[in-house]
Structures are given as C-alpha cells and as structure tokens.
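An instance as discussed:

___
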Amino acid sequence: MNTQHKHTPGPWFVGGKTGYQNQLKIEPTIGVVYGAGEQLQANAALVAAAPRLLDLVERCAHLLSRANVSSGVCCCGDSTENHASPYDSGHAPVDTAEYAAERLCKDAVALLATIHGKP
C-alpha cells in the first residue's frame, strides 16, 4: 500500500450545504459536489468514499499481484489473449477464476497508476 499519498488524508465525509442550491461540501475542505435531488447525495457519498476506495484498490492489487494465478487458457489450448473476446468467439477460458483475477489485478494496477499520476 502506498503511504505517500499526495491527496488530503481521509476520512472524508459529506458536509453541509454551501449556501448554493444543489451543492454539498466534502469535508475536510476537499471541495463541493453538484447535483440535483438524490443525485446530489449519491455524488457526494461517492466522492467522500474516495480515500477508502483507493485503499481498497491498493489492498486488492497487492493481494492479487502476489496470488498464484496462471494466464487465461482457452479450451482450444491457446491463450485467451489471442481471441478477440474469449466469451464471444465460441471459445471459453478453462481457468475462468484465475483469468478473472489476473485481469482484475491488471485493471487495479492501471487504475492506481492513473490515480498516482504515473504513465
């Protein structure tokens, strides 16, 4: 897990109104969220959850990067990476759980790189 985050440390929470209609504060002084009706509260809750979501993705990526997973192997014997879409091409991965975990790990690592401003 990355302990060198550049963002304001969590926890973040939904604060009160800003004095403007359709705005809620994200505390501690992160910013404001816009929306109308239920969307306003949902947007604010999602933004306020960002530090916890980041922590969760980091822990998942850490765990999955060390898990014993093999590459996706199709029923035809080729790597599932060689098929346009393993599920739409008439082929099927024979190690679906391992394939899904590997893809999830790659996606989590890519998302973390984006969050941390790395190429």
